[in-house]
Amino acid sequence: MILDLILPRKSKYYVAAFALLGTLFSLAPLFIQWANYTSPIYAFENSFVIDKFSIILKGLFILITYLTFLLSINFIESDKYYQGEYYYLLLSSLLGALIVSSSRDLLTIFIGIELASTPMFLLSGWKKGDRKSNEGAIKFFLLGVLSASLILYGFSLLYGLTGQLVFSDISSYLLSASLTDSPVVLLSAILVISGIGFKISIVPFHSWAPDTYEGAPLPVTAYLSVSSKATGFVALIILLTKVFSGSGSSWGFILVIISGLTMTLGNLVALQQENPVRLLAYSSISQAGFILAPIAISGITGDYQDGIFASVTYLIIYAFMNLGAFLSVHLFNNFAKSSNFYEWGGVAKKSPLAGVLTTIFFFSLAGIPPLGGWFAKFVVFRSLLGSENLIGISLGVVGAVNAVIALVYYARISKVIWMDEPKSIHEDRIFNFENPLKVVGVFTVLITFISGIFPGIFSYLGEVSSIFFGN
Amino acid sequence: MELLTNGLGLSAVVFFPIISAFLIILIPKKQEQLIKVFALASSLITFVLSAVLLFQFDFSSADKFQLGNKISWIRSINANYEIGIDGISLPLLVLSTFITVLAIIYSIEHLPEPKSPKGFLALILVLETGMNGTFVALDLILFFVFFEIVLLPMYFMIGIWGDKTIRTVSGLKNQIETRLYASIKFFVFTLFGSAFMLLGFLGLYYRGNKTFSIPELIELGSSGAFTGTFATLVFAVLFLGFAVKVPMWPLHTWLPDAHTAAPTVGSVLLAAILLKLGSYGFVRIAIPILPEQAKAWAPAIAILSAIGIIYGSLACLAQTDLKRLIAFSSVGHMGFVMLGIASLTPIGINAAMIGMVAHGVITGLLFFLSGSMAHTYHTRDMGRLGGNMKLLPKTGAMLGFTAMASLGLPGLAGFWGEFMALLGAYNPLDGLNITVFRTSMVAGAIGTVLTAGYLLWMLQRVNLGEPSEEWLDKELHDADIYELSAWIPLVVLTVLIGIFPKLIFGATNDAVTSMLLKAFGG
What we know:
The complex is a heterodimer of chains A (471) and B (522). Chain A is 76% helix and 1% strand. By secondary structure, chain A is mainly alpha-helical. By secondary structure, chain B is mainly alpha-helical. In chain B, strands 1-2 form a two-stranded antiparallel sheet. In chain B, helix 4 (89-109) packs antiparallel against helix 12 (264-289) and helix 7 (151-161) packs antiparallel against helix 8. At the A-B interface, helix 16, helix 17 and helix 19 of A face strand 1, helix 6, helix 7 and helix 8 of B.
């Protein structure tokens, strides 16, 4: 049952291959659990649960980590750094993410969140000699500690109020004592939102992200922007819907504003970036706004099921296309030896495969059908308009405008690599596209296409989120 | 033949091109000949398939959706793969497959720089899937997806194979190549419209029993399910989405840039098919689903169309660039189409339908000709061209003929659309403001005169007179066999539609009449 949690840790022997196998192998128990699934299984006095929702998320986390490993192999070997530690730290972070997706009490979820993010402090400073890397890591560390303390403070308020740790007990206590609208609960919710807000880099807690992303090794950045963000969102979704579901209208309104600000600010700043990593950092801030929107609205309307469905669908599609986008940046940065994407002029002609993949990822991020991103945006708009209230529709309009703004900078990458004149200094260089990276590219592209053309496969998520909310 | 009637044939028309495009990508770049033959063959097969459907189509019940199918696609949101054609979409679908064949024939020998036939032809085929799909989709989400699929190939066609002239753009610090500016402008404008259109679709979904099916929504709409502020807002966003694509004044500014910058084939497809996606959206979705709102908005649409007609013609008179002139003429001609639609009468909408086809054929041909001339002369400046009749007699003759067709000479295709649109505007649907429509009609009539004016003036500057000194000692190639075989079918079609407009009306009339009957009652 918890085999999937233990297995990855075994692979702390210092070989990449073993880490890869371990992660892949840890998918197996998930399949077995899925196949034998009848009803949610609770363990450790209701503080740990295995339901379809958590199985799907675990599958997602493990896959992301697997792809990150593939991204890292050449990178880590080329730098002659501590390979073993690198894999170990990533696996620890994975373990944290896995714990979060199953946790049902305050302590477990806190441990999960911190286990997921602490290794990232180290990993983001991996390039020891690099000042940017150090700066980014310090910022990340300081804000990370602050965020942990905010979450903890929020939790302690809750505990003080209710004396309970397990989510279901807390929320039933709050209901029975009709404390759902009490200012203390709201304060606790705000603290939790702020704390997790750092992890998922929503405005105004986003300032560390671009610096840390820029300084960290690229595979780590990819992991940060995909897996860490997903972990944060999952924690937020679980906490808001399981604990604070009664006071949805108050935090819902706050989140609506945050969500609107996040997408707009992220987009506007992304427009001015010349460094591809910073561009992706701001774009992922803006995407976080989109992921947040359905949860925010569901707080106001109370239709959590639909909100969770939209957010999680977005999260899954986003994870793969964004990993793909980082793969592109990785490839072209290595080739052009420059961190300004205007220097990438015409590189698509050097490697049409990389060019086509990049185009697909970036237009998918922009939400152009038939690539996966359109369905992600679509379910978000659907849940916003489905609320049929003025706030939801206004947020929908803000989202629509932002989708158009975002196109400008996503399309810019394609413009540079396909339409600009090739640089003369690039002429004799050989374009390296190692096999592990090809696997990542093909895998993420397939998911991007399949989720765009047959979005029906996400339908089961709808049922899953109803189960999730049913208990 | 059984197979073709249950939706498989229609699906093949939609997906065959994109599958071929993927196969083309797999062919090694060196085998250019194979790539070209393959692309041509696949577009021909698609055209033949659509022609077979033409015979399968039951014209006696052209008002019903036929040859279609409905398969569950995205269960969780109740979006289906629902397709079908009726008299309104049939002519446009055939036009689309037909023009694509011609575009590929032309491309065999006349690829724009940088050559790379593989990418170019694959993009044309992807584009064809988007266009055909939009005409057969009967589900709003499916429609949206196809509507958007056309954006990417067109963006890359303009951006990679487009015009490399450096130009200044007001508001930008640095000078920029025309193709880069035009491609992103095209993309952003259309995406802006369609992002809001999607919100409108979702609005219909939530108020309309959670269905995206167009036929079901039409039933709901005609029974008055959508009313009030909600319906006004939805019509407004649908209007935005479609009007950008048409394009209607004042949302047209992307069009001249895109047309001028696009490679010849890109302009042809853009003018002939892509613009029709917008006007088709009005006839297929906006009017039948939201009839009351259409009625409320009709005067505004009529006024904007009239402004578009006059503005387009006046802008044409101010052009020195041949291609840009034709681009602005599109604004004028699509103004007539929209004026016909705004009248909400059978005459007006039939006029719009034949106007769409005629504009596709005639303006497509004009862009072929101007592109070919720009290629021969290496300039599109009408001040330097002249005496084309003497230098390139075949091209010149074609240009003369097409200009006559474009200005609406009776007996050729362009006549019916303009004439009947004005007729429709003279006598719009009961309850619409007669003064507004008659004023628009007068404006439209003035527009026809101006249209004749700028086209004849263009002919005078380009075709007639003595060639200027600079061309005399140069060897100029007149149209070759590839060009002629792309152009002559269009000429034949122009004459045929001109003489037998029933070719189009036979299909559209029943469908249009029944659509209007359903929407506005007897």
